[in-house]
């Protein structure tokens, strides 16, 4: 069941593109505006593939973790709800699972009620917050999640919206350090080293819309997993990550993705 009612959302700015709405357009959603569509249409066709691959990776990774018994999820950078949402995937496996969604985009808050439709046994909550305030997120999440037991932290297609001067490494470290042993980090990230020309084009188009990006190499993305135990198959492209059959179709990708566990001795 939901634990609260989201506050009244602030007015949505339809004059500037927003990452969540551009992503919604790339996924074929309807919760976007002409300014967002304009950005999406200027992106290379592979951007739609990347959005789909991100979503499919999230489905596989969270379903697998739920099957392993993880029943608490902290999803930061939730985006506009697109069914099936994370809580729907997880609660099919573990009906009593508890999920906290976090996003800073007002349009996501407008759709928060869709994120709060939990199974009767479980709980969902939505927190309006910015990933650049990890301490605030953790304080809110502790109202719903029990951090003495494993928690899966989901950072899907989020960190490439944090250039290096916003200290994404420090943010992830603060979040991961709060996780008890047995917890997991689920992460996907746009690559700067797989298709450099396309990555440059995407970065430039977002910059024209006033959105800064920080695509990273595989080695740079691997640093987010420092001190954690990567789950097989390790840090791979999004379509290459799977744990149960059937295997995803083989396809080219510009997305690094991985899942890692917090070891019994804690993070290094």
Automatic annotation (TrEMBL):
| Entries under InterPro entries matching the protein | SAM-dependent_MTases_sf, SAM_dep_MeTrfase_SAV2177_type
Q: Which Pfam families has this protein been placed in?
A: Methyltransf_19
Extract one GO BP annotation from the record: methylation
SUPFAM superfamilies recorded for this chain?
A: S-adenosyl-L-methionine-dependent methyltransferases
Query: Which residue ranges does the record annotate as region Disordered?
Result: 247-268
Entry keyword Methyltransferase: yes
Keyword vocabulary terms for this entry: Methyltransferase, Transferase
- Protein's UniProt name: SAM-dependent methyltransferase
Task: Give the GO molecular function terms.
Answer: methyltransferase activity
């Amino acid at each position: 069941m939901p634990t609260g009612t989201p506050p009244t959302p602030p007015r949505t700015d339809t004059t500037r593109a927003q990452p969540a709405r551009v992503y919604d357009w790339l996924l074929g959603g309807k919760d976007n505006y002409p300014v967002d569509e304009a950005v999406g249409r200027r992106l290379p066709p592979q951007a739609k593939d990347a959005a789909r691959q991100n979503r499919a990776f999230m489905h596989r990774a969270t379903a697998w973790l739920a099957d392993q018994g993880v029943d608490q999820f902290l999803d930061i950078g939730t985006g506009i709800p697109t069914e099936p949402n994370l809580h729907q995937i997880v609660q099919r496996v573990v009906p009593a699972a508890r999920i906290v969604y976090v996003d800073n985009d007002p349009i996501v808050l407008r759709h928060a009620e869709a994120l709060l439709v939990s199974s009767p046994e479980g709980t969902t909550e939505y927190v309006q917050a910015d990933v650049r305030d990890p301490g605030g997120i953790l304080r809110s999440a502790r109202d719903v999640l029990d951090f003495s037991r494993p928690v899966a932290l989901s950072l899907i297609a989020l960190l490439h919206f944090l250039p290096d001067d916003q200290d994404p490494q420090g943010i992830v470290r603060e979040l991961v350090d709060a996780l008890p042993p047995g917890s997991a980090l689920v992460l996907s990230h746009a690559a700067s080293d797989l298709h450099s020309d396309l990555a440059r084009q995407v970065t430039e188009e977002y910059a024209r819309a006033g959105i800064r990006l920080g695509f990273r190499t595989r080695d740079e993305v691997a640093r987010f997993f420092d001190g954690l135990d990567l789950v097989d198959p390790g840090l791979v492209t999004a379509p290459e990550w799977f744990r149960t059959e059937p295997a995803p179709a083989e396809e080219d990708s510009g997305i690094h993705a991985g899942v890692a566990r917090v070891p019994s001795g804690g993070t290094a």
